[in-house]
Amino acid sequence: MNTEITANKVLAQKFYDYLQNEDYESAAQLCHKDFIFYLQLDTPIYGTDGFIVSEKANFDAFNGFKFTVENMFAEDDRVAVFMIFDGYHSAKLMGIEPTGNRVRISLMMLLQIKDGKIFEKRAHFDKADILRQLTI
């Protein structure tokens, strides 16, 4: 396997390991100075500060959450990561007070690597499925 592709996959795994451990500062250090996060298609968040605020708000709503990297595929400067998120709703999220409901969703992330750092992160998930699980 190409050493650059291998390095990109190692970088992606380390990034998600840091996020799983809620070590946002270390995750941010793996990001490019011009980092862009797309929470959905047309909602860019520029810089790691906004990214951390967004991720922290989501993860804080699920005390003790877990996400598991199920598959990772890399080509050129891109790494696709398929994950399963699993947690119990323990704090306000999307205007919904804590329900204690278990939320289990699939996530697809597409990372672009530039200069050995994560330059862009695109998140794809089903928000309607999350809302359904929060309110059932």
Enumerate how many helices there are, as a single number.
4
Main sheet specs: 6 strands, mixed
Roughly what is the average pLDDT, rounded to an integer?
94
Question: End-to-end span in angstroms?
Answer: 45 Å
Q: Strand sequence of the main sheet, in spatial order?
A: 2-1-6-5-4-3
* Overall body shape: globular
Radius of gyration: 15 Å
**What's the helical proportion of residues?**
25-40%
% residues in beta strands: 35-45%
Task: Give the class from helix and strand content and strand pairing.
Answer: alpha+beta
N-to-C SSE string, H for helix and E for strand: HHEEHEEEEH
Number of strands: 6
- Contiguous runs where pLDDT drops below 50 for at least 5 residues: none
Topology:
Blueprint: H1 3-20, H2 24-29, E1 31-38, E2 44-46, H3 48-60, E3 66-75, E4 78-88, E5 102-114, E6 117-124, H4 127-135
Based on the model shown, name its key terms.
single chain; 136 residues; alpha+beta; 6-stranded mixed beta sheet; 39% strand; globular
Tell me about this structure.
- The structure is a single chain.
- The chain is an alpha+beta fold and 136 residues long.
- It is 34% helix and 39% strand.
- The chain has helices at residues 3-20, 24-29, 48-60, 127-135; strands at 31-38, 44-46, 66-75, 78-88, 102-114, 117-124.
- It starts with a helix and ends with a helix.
